[in-house]
């Protein structure tokens, strides 16, 4: 055959070219390395340690931070006490059902923390979660619920949460 292709001229290539795949993976790695530091909260606060089991972190958490000098921040933006409600409305698009995560320095007095929680309630934000550092369980610290599910299920008085029994040594 004068103008046709012969079987020897065309052969199938069964090799996988991984170079474009590696290029895409390196670009994605660089993107995530640049984006990861931008997604953290940069307001420095010394959080207290908790022995409670950590809860699942939401995708887009909004942090309200009370620093040791009693200054407030919503996300990374400093806010005056009087401007807390409007700042929250701007961050949440006035969604009062959105959960707020309250971070407070361990040097902040309890009264100031309650003042902030009252300000959040007055602004209409009732879903507030407290943020703390994960730590090792403290010996004798309450960390489990009684069999009824809640401490109040057993008696009308406040009940102490029981800790799991210690394993006895084998003889």
Strand coverage percent: 5-15%
Which radius of gyration do the C-alpha atoms yield? 28 Å
How would you characterize the largest beta sheet? 5 strands, mixed
How far the N terminus sits from the C terminus, by CA atoms, comes to 93 Å
| Shape descriptor | elongated
Work out the oligomeric state of the chains in this entry: single chain
Describe this structure in words.
By secondary structure, the protein is an alpha/beta fold. The chain has three helices and seven strands; from the N terminus they run αββββαβαββ. It has helices spanning about 20-35, 85-90, 110-120, and strands at about 50, 60-65, 70-75, 75-80, 100-105, 130, 135. The strands form two sheets. Strands 4-3-2-5-6 form a five-stranded mixed sheet, covered by helices on one side. A hairpin with a 2-residue loop joins strand 3 (about 70-75) and strand 4. The longest helix has 17 residues, at about 20-35. It starts with 18 loop residues before the first helix and ends in a 37-residue tail after the last strand. The model is unreliable at about 145-170 (pLDDT under 50).
């Amino acid at each position: 055959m004068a103008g046709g292709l012969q079987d020897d001229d065309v052969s199938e290539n069964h090799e996988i070219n991984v170079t474009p795949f590696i290029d895409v993976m390196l670009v994605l790695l660089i993107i995530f390395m640049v984006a990861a530091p931008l997604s953290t909260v940069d307001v420095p606060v010394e959080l207290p340690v908790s022995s409670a089991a950590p809860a699942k972190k939401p995708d887009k958490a909004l942090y309200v931070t009370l620093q040791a000098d009693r200054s407030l921040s919503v996300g990374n933006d400093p806010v005056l006490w009087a401007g807390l409600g409007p700042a929250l409305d701007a961050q949440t698009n006035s969604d009062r059902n959105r959960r707020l995560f309250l971070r407070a320095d361990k040097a902040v007095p309890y009264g100031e923390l309650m003042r902030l929680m009252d300000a959040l309630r007055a602004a209409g934000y009732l879903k507030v979660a407290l943020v703390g550092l994960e730590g090792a369980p403290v010996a004798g610290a309450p960390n489990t619920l009684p069999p009824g599910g809640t401490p109040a299920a057993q008696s009308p008085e406040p009940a102490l949460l029981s800790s799991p029994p210690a394993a006895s040594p084998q003889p």
